[in-house]
Write a structure and sequence with these properties.
- With about 300 residues, the protein is of the alpha+beta class.
- About 40% of the residues lie in helices and about 10% in strands.
- It contains 13 helices and 5 strands.
- One of its GO terms (molecular function) is DNA binding.
Length: about 300
């Protein structure tokens, strides 16, 4: 079965007839979601064709058919994008695919480093392909976790969310945040089909974390964009922060993630306190840090 077939089947399984305006037939249904026959009727295609797509027995599916299936399933923009990318991805054994080894990320632009370090009142990170953490400012490390404890190949935001107890414990709504992280990662995987680093990350997290296995099997996708997260920090307690993800021009695949608080709110006061605390300085041991002047020690605080 192909990724397209698996994703289409998962979307069909979680879409009820009532959600798409179909009458609910009396009696017991073997599946809670749409039957293949029902999806075929809604999309205006043959049921045998839907079956062959789900079973991976169709070489190329036309954009018109994909659009009809997406419309029938009431897919959102992110889900539509993923469906189209799955259809465009090479099949197993295809010629395309990323080479083995850790992905070679473009260097961080000096201007982006300066921008990152200048955001003293907001927690900011630069992410690369697959949500690898390429750079961050002091406040991001104070808010989330000490990224310098990990080698560069393990500084992945999704990986640390699941495997770093310090970071995982700071998310007040773990069930929501964890599921969103998995949806972000699947979206990233769809944008870079065949990427061996993403495949290794999925394999590692599937082996080591039951939550990840459960959410990965649900085939949810979501682009990393904007939203809010609630944190519970050992120094300041609970704070609610908005976040925004922006592409960095001139560096394909690099994004800037900024966490900030509503002005004059308790969360803003808490974030300002953390910014002052982070400003005392953490020894700079990693090449992912933006250049800055000398800072004092943090008085033994970890």
């Amino acid at each position: 079965m192909t990724e397209l077939g698996s994703y289409l089947r998962a979307c069909r399984a979680r879409t009820t007839p009532a959600e798409v305006g179909m009458p609910t037939s009396p009696g017991h249904r073997r599946v809670p979601g749409l039957r293949r026959e029902e999806l075929a009727v809604l999309a205006g295609v043959g049921v045998d064709y839907v079956t062959r797509i789900e079973q991976g027995r169709v070489g190329t599916v036309s954009p018109e058919v994909l659009t009809a299936l997406a419309r029938a399933l009431r897919l959102g923009p992110d889900e539509r994008e993923y469906l189209l990318r799955c259809a465009a991805a090479p099949t197993r054994g295809g010629a395309r695919g990323a080479p083995a080894g850790h992905r070679g990320e473009p260097a961080i632009d000096p201007a982006d480093r300066a921008l990152l370090e200048g955001m003293t009142g907001a927690a900011a990170l630069v992410l690369g392909h697959g949500l690898d953490v390429l750079a961050r400012n002091d406040l991001a490390a104070e808010l989330l976790t000490d990224f310098d404890r990990y080698p560069h190949g393990e500084r992945n935001l999704v990986r640390l969310a699941f495997l770093d107890p310090e970071l995982r414990g700071r998310y007040a709504d773990w069930e929501r945040v964890g599921a969103e992280c998995v949806a972000y990662l699947r979206m990233e995987a769809g944008r870079r089909p065949g990427d061996p680093d993403t495949a290794r990350l999925v394999e590692e997290l599937s082996e080591r974390d039951g939550d990840f296995r459960r959410w990965w099997a649900e085939y949810r996708v979501r682009a990393h964009g904007t939203g809010h997260k609630r944190f519970v920090h050992p120094l300041v307690g609970e704070l609610t922060l908005g976040f925004r993800v922006s592409d960095l021009r001139g560096t394909p695949g690099h994004t800037l993630v900024v966490y900030g608080a509503e002005p004059d709110s308790p969360s803003a006061e808490a974030l300002a306190f953390l910014a002052g605390w982070a400003g005392r300085g953490r020894p700079r041991s990693g090449a992912d840090r933006a250049p800055a002047g000398d800072r004092g020690d943090r008085g033994g605080v970890t």
